[in-house]
Each structure stands twice: as C-alpha cells, then as structure tokens.
Specification:
GO molecular function, one term: quinone binding
Helix content: 40-55%
Radius of gyration: 27 Å
Strand order of the largest sheet: 1-2-3
Main location: membrane
CATH class of the largest domain: Mainly Alpha
Order of helices and strands: EEEHHHHHEEHHHHHHHEEEHHHHHHHHHH
Strand content: 5-15%
Structural class: mainly alpha
Number of domains: 2
CATH superfamily of the largest domain: Cytochrome-c3 Hydrogenase, chain B
Number of strands: 8
Protein name: NADH-quinone oxidoreductase subunit D domain-containing protein
CATH topology of the largest domain: Cytochrome-c3 Hydrogenase, chain B
Subcellular location: Membrane
Distance between the termini: 79 Å
Organism: Salix viminalis
Largest sheet: 3 strands, antiparallel
C-alpha cells in the first residue's frame, strides 16, 4: 500500500476583509467646490460616506449683525454667486416686511424679470458641469453660449455681469435702460430654440439615460422628512413652489405652472430644471409685455434715512461723490422670509431690536439642507455614480458655507457704501493701502519657507514661468511676425503649457506645508482636467482639416 505524501502548505496571504477608505476632495475637479467626502468602499460599492464641510466658512451671519441692510448688500452676493439676484431679494424682503414698505408695481415686475433670468443662468451653469461630470462635453459649450447672453442683459441693466448689487429696499437701484426690454424679448425667443437643442443632445441620449435613470432615488416621504426643497423636492412628486405658496412679488399675475416629476431619481431632477427654464421664459415674456410705468423705487424710503453730520463728511460728499447710506431702524419683531431660489428654499430668520443693525440674522441655505441626504443616496451605489448624484443635487459651496471673499476693489466699494474713512481708504483714491499691502508682503512675509525645500520651492515657479514664456514662441503677434512658424504649433503650445502643472506641484511640495501642497494639487488637477478635453477638441478639428 502506497503512502500518500503530504505536501507542505503554501504560504497564501490572508485576504483582507476591511473596507478601503478613500478621500474624495476637497480639491477635486468634479466636487463643485471645496467639499470633502470620506468614502468607505468595498471594491466599487460605496459602503459609507462622511461629508466634511466648512472650508469656505467666513462668518456671514455675524457680519450681518454688525452692518446695516444697505451696507450688507454687497456681501450677500457671495453666498450663491451663480444666482445673486435671489440673495439680494431675500436680504431686502425682510426689512420691507418689518417696516411695511410698499414696492411700486414697476419695481416688482423688474425684480421678477431679474429673478427668472438669474434662475435660468443658474440652471444653465448647473447643467453644463453636470453633463461634463458624466462624460458629456459637447452640451457644455452650447450652454455657456446662452448664459453669456443673460450676463450681457445683466451688465446692461446693472453694470455688472456678476455680484450685481441691484436690489434696494423699496425697489431697485436703477430703471431698465432704453431698448433693454426688446433685447430681453429677443433672448427669450432665441433661448426656446436652445432648449430644443438640449432636448435633442441630452434628454433622448441613451448613454445619458443609462447614467441618470434610477440613480439616487428619493421618495416623496423621504424628501419631506429630510427637509428638501426646490427641484430636489419637486422631482420626488411634491408640488411645492414658494412662488405659488407665498404669493410674493407679482407671480400671481402671470400664467405659469409648477414643474414636477414623481420618479425621484437624477433624471427626474434634470427634467424638473429643464422644465423650469421653459416656465421662466414664459414668466419673463409676460412681465416684459405687461410691465407698467411709474417709479422704480419707493421714494418714501429716502425719508427714513438718518443723515450724518455734513461737516464731517463734506469733502467726501462734494469731491469724491460719496452719498449717505440710508439706515433703517428695524422694529422689535421676529420674521422669517423665504424665496424660491434655483436650488430650493432660501430663507432668512430676522430679529430686530429698534436698531439699524439686525439683532439676529440666520441664513437658511437650500444647498446645505439638500446636501444632508447625500450619504444616504450614495450608499450601496457604485463609485462612478457619486458624481451623478452629487451633480443632480446642485450645490454651491459658497452658499453651503456662506462664503465671503473680498479683494481690494470690493473693499473700496464696501467702504464707499459704509460712508466712512477707515483702513480701506488711505491716500489719494486709496492707493496707499495697496502700496502698504505690497510693502508688507515683500518685507514682512517670508518669501521662502523656513522649513521647506528651498531648491524645489524655487524651481517650481521657474518651470511654470519658463513654460509660459516658451509657449509664446509659436503664437503669431502679426501676419508675418512669429518666432517659430511650425505646422504643429498649436500642439507644441499645448505640450509646453502642460509642463506648468509640474511647477505647481513642486512649489506646493517644496513648501513643506500641507495647505500649500493641497492648493498645488488642486491647481494641477484643474489644469489637467481643462487641458485634456480642449486638446481632444483641437485634435479632432485638426484631423478633420487634414482630410
């Protein structure tokens, strides 16, 4: 009988059973802002998700409690910087209701027109990046075409393409210029043809339907329990629109319908926003055709202004053209006001105490509330579905964290509104303040990191600067004036410019600072994510030209 020979056991490594932890963001090309997601993955399946917020928090509520309403208006456009008309509207609606201030009919019509144009612009800028996130690059360029036309209308009426600062207590800052109504009507007719193009490119696209249909489903009960609003709520079968519910401004005078779907998935949220853009055009057309005459502001509100001492301010008033900022005493009451913003219910809880400053100013941002359901939506989904679900929610992190970003020019404008000479105004036209900032940067701040790699920190900017200068070698400055006339000049320019992200990474790494390194990673990721689709577009055109 033969004896069986036992083979020695093989050293097989044990299979790990724990989950993989992945950090998505805060610096990620598809995160729609500085949002960080800590994901627990089992292969491609999402087991858990923890959102990390607060990277853009700047204390906007506390700033409001130390400013008058007029002084605070330039700040509020930094919440949702893609729909600034709504942040301005909610800021002046509260004091108007507390002070029982009547808005002229013409001003109300102008407000509705601006609000609906802002709604369309916000939905367009949501749709373009959303399509890019799920692989559709072509609609992105179509969408920006119409959005620029809206910004042209904003610029003609308010003087600004963004951060308009146009709404005022009791009306608007200025009347519509001559010919503006006709241009807006022409845009409405043109935009309806653009929506038809979106339907052909997107809605009936089978690849798009596979990416969004049945992804991120929210039932009507869940939407109500989570406090969702806007398209997130209406896409789940709840017909709730504050323009119909609260009857603010003059929306009741127009014929329009609430857009809603019952499926509750990402496709339903897309369809709701597409339908809302069409309804907004209907509202704008009716408002343009029926806009009444009369004043664009309540002139009685000027009598509420408390004049400052003219002797203290005489030079500014006469020679710098600064005017007194009206200050309103807010009665001792509590009030909650809300508007139907593109992303949902934007609300303000306001408490007055017979002072020019609000005693409490609480912001209810729709993006912050809607974002809370994200962990539940992406659990048990695939990793590739995260961008689809997150994009369908439509968030702006400036609104979620209530951002404040002020540059030199904005400081000057804010100082002018506040009617005071402070640290923002030094020297003729305030130029000494900018000179002081530059001097402090050169002589007080460290130009090189004390604990970093000096060589890498110096080589990085050099690579970025040299690659930028080299790219000019193939750029023609005239018909016969070009340093290097190459047949592949555009591709050489792309190749040289692609070296710049290396310098950004080296600078961030050489600083030995995690925040600088994260900033370098973000800048490099953005550059790469923008260059790749642009290169593919140029390549396809070049191949077409060769044929």
């Amino acid at each position: 009988m033969e004896k069986s020979i036992e083979e020695p056991p093989m050293n097989v490594p044990a299979t790990r059973k724990d989950f993989m932890i992945v950090n998505m963001g805060p610096h990620h090309p598809s995160m729609h802002g500085v949002l960080r997601l800590i994901l627990s993955l089992d292969g491609e399946d999402v087991i858990d998700c923890e959102p990390i917020l607060g990277y853009l928090h700047r204390g906007m509520e506390k700033i409001a409690e130390n400013r008058t309403i007029i002084q605070y208006l330039p700040y509020v456009t930094r919440w949702d910087y893609l729909a600034t008309m709504f942040t301005e509207a909610i800021t002046i609606n509260g004091p108007e209701q507390l002070g029982n201030i009547q808005v002229p009919k013409r001003a109300s019509y102008i407000r509705v027109i601006m609000l609906e144009l802002s709604r369309i612009a916000s939905h367009l800028l949501w749709l373009g990046p959303f399509m890019a996130d799920i692989g559709g690059q072509t609609p992105f360029f179509y969408i920006f075409r119409e959005r620029e036309l809206i910004y042209d209308l904003f610029e003609a009426a308010t003087g600004m393409r963004m951060m308009h600062n146009y709404f005022r207590i009791g009306g608007v800052a200025a009347d519509l210029p001559h010919g503006w109504l006709d241009k807006c009507l022409d845009f409405c007719d043109y935009f309806l043809t653009g929506v038809a193009e979106y339907q052909k490119l997107i809605t009936r696209n089978p690849i798009f339907l596979q990416r969004v249909e049945g992804i991120g489903i929210v039932s009507a009960e869940e939407a109500i329990n989570w406090g969702l609003s806007g398209p997130m709520l209406r896409a789940s079968g709840v017909r709730w629109d504050l323009r119909k519910v609260d009857h603010y401004e003059c929306y009741d005078e127009f014929d329009w319908g609430v857009q809603w779907q019952k499926e509750g998935d990402s496709l339903a949220r897309y369809l709701v926003r597409i339908g809302e853009m069409t309804e907004s055009v209907k509202i704008i057309q009716q408002a343009l055709e029926g806009i009444p005459g009369g004043p664009y502001e309540n002139l009685e509100t000027r009598s509420f202004a408390r004049e400052r001492n003219r002797e203290w301010n005489d030079f500014e008033y006469r020679f710098i053209s600064k005017k007194t900022s009206p200050a309103f005493e807010l009665p001792k009451q509590e009030l909650y006001v809300r508007v139907e913003a593109p992303k949902g219910e934007l609300g303000i809880f306001l408490i007055g105490d017979q002072s020019s400053f609000p005693w409490r100013w609480k912001i209810r941002p729709p993006g912050f509330i809607n974002l809370q359901i994200l962990p539940q939506l992406i659990k048990r989904m695939k990793l590739a579905d995260i961008m689809t679900i997150l994009g369908s929610i439509d968030i702006i992190m400036g609104e979620v964290d209530r951002i404040l970003v002020i540059v030199w020019l904005e400081r000057e404008i804010s100082a002018g509104i506040q009617q005071r000479i402070g640290p923002e105004y030094a020297g003729p036209f305030g130029v000494l303040q900018a000179l002081a900032d530059g001097t402090k940067l050169l002589f007080k701040e460290n130009l090189f990191p004390s604990r970093g790699d000096t060589r890498l920190f110096s080589i990085g900017p050099s690579i970025a600067a040299i690659s930028t200068l080299l790219s000019y070698s193939v750029i023609p400055f005239g018909y016969h004036f070009v340093l290097a006339d190459l047949n592949i000049g555009v591709f050489l320019w792309i190749a040289i410019s692609s070296i710049a992200p290396i310098g950004l990474l080296m600078s961030g790494y050489g600083s030995n600072n995690k925040y600088s390194f994260l900033g370098g990673l973000r800048a490099a990721a953005q550059s790469i994510s923008y260059e790749i689709p642009l290169t593919l577009c140029v390549l396809s055109i070049s191949l077409r030209a060769i044929r």
